[in-house]
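F.,

This is the one I mentioned.
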């Protein structure tokens, strides 16, 4: 590709533009054969295979062997599909779509609409984690460590470390090293608030979010008091319920 100077808009060469068309065809029509793509795009079979080979080398697409559904005889046909790696790369577009959709929701229903959406998003997490946390018993520290294990099983890479044990200031520091919605939460901190509320209900104590990756932290950190904490009776918040008591959100309470 021609080198792009500072301030210039990068321009794809013809090969790259055609390769993008081939990838789009695989995404939209896969599993699809090279011959079918040639007809769809108006390209020769040789040209299609050249671009397919390049996309395969980069791990963006992969070959799927499909047997003859009618007779089951003969060599399986080669069909092309987008690989998991390719789906991840293409997923950037879906992130932008999600961001635009949430902006539209905020424009029509305000922050309450976004908060209700975020709460519904975390409802499944709360229901699936509750038995795991309750199995740890009434000790808040044990519950926090159980929550960390549940989060880690879902690839949040979480830990729960004890601070100032055996004192009135005792606490657990619950940290998450991975956030799958970090980019969205940067624009919509309601997701961080909803998650923090779920943690509070799961653990049975008031927790405080100290930092989030969405706001620039290298991990998401939640302070869980245990020194004088007594697990309160759990009251599940109905889906879509938004706090209206004027309290400052957990996201706004964050410390640098």
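My design for it:
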């Amino acid at each position: 590709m021609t080198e792009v100077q500072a301030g210039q808009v990068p321009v794809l060469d013809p090969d790259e533009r055609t390769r993008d068309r081939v990838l789009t065809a695989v995404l939209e029509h896969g599993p699809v054969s090279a011959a079918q793509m040639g007809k769809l795009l108006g390209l020769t079979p040789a040209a299609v295979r050249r671009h397919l080979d390049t996309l395969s080398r980069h791990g963006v697409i992969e070959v799927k062997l499909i047997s003859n559904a009618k007779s089951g005889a003969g060599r399986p046909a080669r069909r092309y599909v987008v690989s998991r790696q390719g789906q991840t790369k293409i997923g950037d577009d879906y992130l932008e779509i999600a961001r635009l959709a949430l902006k539209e929701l905020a424009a029509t229903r305000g922050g309450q609409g976004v908060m209700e959406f975020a709460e519904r998003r975390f409802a499944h997490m709360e229901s699936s984690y509750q038995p795991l946390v309750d199995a740890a018993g009434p000790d808040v520290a044990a519950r926090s460590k159980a929550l960390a294990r549940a989060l880690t099983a879902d690839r949040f890479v979480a830990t729960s470390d004890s601070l100032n044990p055996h004192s009135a200031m005792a606490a657990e520091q619950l940290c998450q090293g991975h956030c799958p919605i970090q980019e969205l939460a940067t624009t919509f901190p309601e997701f961080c608030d909803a998650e923090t509320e779920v943690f509070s209900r799961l653990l049975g104590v008031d927790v405080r979010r100290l930092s989030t990756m969405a706001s620039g932290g290298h991990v998401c950190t939640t302070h869980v008091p245990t020194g004088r904490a007594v697990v309160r009776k759990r009251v599940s918040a109905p889906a879509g319920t938004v706090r209206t008591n004027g309290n400052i959100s957990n996201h706004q309470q964050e410390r640098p």
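The chain is about 50% helix and 15% strand.

Talk soon.
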